[in-house]
Amino acid sequence: xxxxxxxxxxxxxxxxxxxxxxxxxxxxxxxxxxxxxxxxxxxxxxxxxxxxxxxxxxxxxxxxxxxxxxxxxxxxxxxxxxxxxxxxxxxxxxxxxxxxxxxxxxxxxxxxxxxxxxxxxxxxxxxxxxxxxxxxxxxxxxxxxxxxxxxxxxxxxxxxxxxxxxxxxxxxxxxxxxxxxxxxxxxxxxxxxxxxxxxxxxxxxxxxxxxxxxxxxxxxxxxxxxxxxxxxxxxxxxxxxxxxxxxxxxxxxxxxxxxxxxxxxxxxxxxxxxxxxxx
Length: 279
What we know:
The protein is of the alpha/beta class. Helices cover 36% and strands 20% of the residues. Strand 11, helix 8 (224-231) and strand 12 (235-237) form a beta-alpha-beta unit.
């Protein structure tokens, strides 16, 4: 029986077992997917013994994504550029790591807005953390001509420009709404608006009517940003779909089947979010 897991510290909040368990049952695969709490001091030992423990691989969540990048071989150029991994698997005796967050974001975006044209207009990203890095890389690869990146600490946004090149335009946080003009996409990658966090207080007045508004926060399922954008007539993309789509490639790598993100799966995880809160 094949098995995989998700590791983090803490890890009880993770909904990955719900997602992968749904697919294992749906495709009739004899396998398991569980949560494993791994303290930072035990991380290297756990990853090093992954195969000996019988795991096909694992997902990686906070705070281990950067540390795991140092413990495995990067599976692709995108992962090498990002410096983080969220999915680990082994092939021919080698532990490989990859990042699926960016593709999860982009697949979710295109599922909700099939006619989204990446190269048509600049994009605005709020935040400059790990999620912003993955989203920026995916959008750049998709052909976005410019990413305006606003962050409370401008230095961090400037670091991403140094990492990705001149198509990243760092912007002071307070100036972000002034740069919404001409943007075809606005993405919140901060924790603002998440349950238990302050709301994202940013004016949408200068955002073009045709712009798409996306929030990677999925607790609550509909953030205040998404509601305000809908009231203005913008097409919107919530964060839950990103969580679901980023899980697809790992399942395929471990269990040999490329799973489908269905409405039933979405509703199952959405119900769990509404019932339990958390992240």
